[in-house]
Design brief:
- By secondary structure, this protein is of the alpha/beta class.
- It is built from eleven helices and ten strands.
- Strands 3-2-1-4-5-10-9-6-7-8 form a ten-stranded mixed β-sheet, sandwiched between helices.
- It is elongated.
């Protein structure tokens, strides 16, 4: 399938809190099991939302000293062959999914995280879907985690999946009423609206003082007087009524990541949604962050949503 311009048709279900987006869903595919799960998940979501899907496969650069080793081929011919072979593989994967007319694909050479983030921004995508793999501490230190890299490079929400799913019916949104967590809950709500029914758990974790991180804590100066119920009531009222969707506030205690992940398992959540905050690579490794830790450790797909830019 060749690369085409994004379809001018808008998704029938539009984000209510920002301008309609035309770019649909961008999904990264590298042939791995996790990326195939991402492609299947993205295709299911694109059908539900009736919006475009753009599959992207990014081949890594070949070091110059490896290009001509015993082959006798010019660097240009080698790159052309690599692109052609990957394009054929991607076309076959898409054909098996019986693609819609507004589904497109693209194969290029570069750094996967940067290329996927740039394509998502350029297309005005509403969602990026990528496969999630387990990494060791050295990979984490070196920043070899593509989903986390993409999350740090784009303002588009990123869904990291390890196994495919078709329709989210139960979503746990970690909320601390910061702009990013509020946006994450709203994106989660829109995904549930596409399925027509489901439950959105709004989970606030109040950690002990010695476990409080830089993320997911209510700033003292922004607290409303009285109970946290006031926060929930105002936020839920702002979401409006959505027939078929139950919105449940939940307050937990303990470590935020552990509490959210365990609660998601207990209720059989299809997805966890969380807002992201600005952390550098080294700071993220040393201190950790809720969104990063959830992507690395949660047993279900994780949707990470940055604040609106």
């Amino acid at each position: 399938m060749s690369t085409n311009a994004p379809s001018p048709a808008l998704c029938e279900q539009e984000w209510e809190y920002e301008l309609p987006l035309q770019g649909g869903i961008v999904v990264g595919v590298d042939g791995s099991r996790e990326s195939i799960a991402a492609l299947n998940t993205a295709s299911a979501l694109a059908r539900i939302r009736r919006c475009p899907l753009h599959a992207v496969s990014v081949l890594p650069y070949i070091p110059s000293y490896d290009r001509n080793r015993g082959s006798g081929e010019s660097p240009g011919n080698i790159e052309a062959l690599r692109l052609s072979m990957r394009s054929t593989e991607l076309d076959e994967l898409l054909r098996a999914l019986e693609p819609r007319s507004d589904w497109t694909s693209e194969v290029l050479v570069g750094r996967p995280s940067r290329e996927l983030a740039a394509i998502a921004e350029r297309r005005g995508a509403e969602l990026v879907v990528v496969g999630r793999r387990r990494h060791g501490s050295m990979d984490r230190m070196l920043g070899n985690e593509t989903p986390l890299q993409i999350m740090g490079l784009t303002s588009v929400p990123v869904l990291a999946v390890e196994a495919e799913f078709e329709k989210p019916h139960t979503i746990v949104a970690a909320i601390d009423f910061s702009p990013s967590s509020v946006r994450a809950a709203k994106v989660a709500l829109q995904l549930l609206k596409c399925t027509g029914s489901g439950t959105l758990y709004l989970v606030l974790v109040e950690p002990p003082a010695d476990l409080t991180s830089n993320e997911f804590k209510l700033a003292q100066e922004t607290r409303f007087p009285g109970d946290v119920v006031v926060w929930f009531r105002r936020f839920i009222d702002s979401l409006g009524a959505h027939p078929g969707i139950l919105t449940e506030p939940v307050v937990l205690n303990g470590n935020t990541v552990t509490a959210v992940a365990e609660f998601a398992e207990r209720v059989g959540a299809d997805m966890i949604a969380a807002g992201s905050h600005s952390h550098g690579r080294f700071e993220r490794f040393l201190l950790g962050s809720v969104s990063t830790a959830l992507v690395r450790n949660a047993s279900c797909p994780v949707l990470v949503v940055p604040p609106c830019s």
